Amino acid sequence: MQDSALFFDKCYDVVRRIPYGKVTSYGAIARYLGAAKGARMVGYAMTASHGKDVPAHRVVNRKGLLTGKHHFEGTNLMQQLLESEGIKIEDNKVIEFESVFWDPVKSH
DNA sequence: CTATTGACTACCG
DNA sequence: TCGGTAGCCAATA
After folding, report:
1. CA of A108 to C1' of B9 (A)
2. pTM higher than the cut 0.85
3. Which residue pairs from A78-84 have beta carbons closer than 8 angstroms and sit at least 24 positions apart in sequence?
4. Which CATH architecture does the domain made up of A2-101 adopt?
5. pLDDT, tens digit, 9 for 90 and up, residues A7-61
6. Which of A86, A87, A93, A108 is paired with A64 by a 20 to 30 Å CA distance?
7. Residue A64 contacts strand C, CB under 7 A
């Protein structure tokens, strides 16, 4: 029971470590936590991250697409948050995604 | 218990 | 990035 809760908590911890102006992917977090197949679980954790100090807008899928924007208020809040950090968005995708990508494994 | 769904990723053509 | 399909794991009905 606590395993999944711990997984969620670790997801939040990693997301909080994302530097300003950087983003990471669900899969990268999942791999960092030792759950390479758990990318969807990371997304699930983000869904449950409401009300917490988790900058979930810095987490996108592996192509830089803002697949989770629908979970934010309005229709473009996630994009605006990223743009306010210097990350450029076009067509729901992070521009120069590889340049702003932050790998939790490398940071570790 | 099974079936469906989802903030994903990899593979195939 | 190019669309469809399969595999994945947990939550929900």
Report:
1. 23
2. yes
3. A81/A55, A81/A57, A82/A23, A82/A57, A82/A58
4. Orthogonal Bundle (1.10)
5. 899 999 999 999 999 999 999 999 999 988 899 999 999 999 988 999 999 999 9
6. A108
7. yes
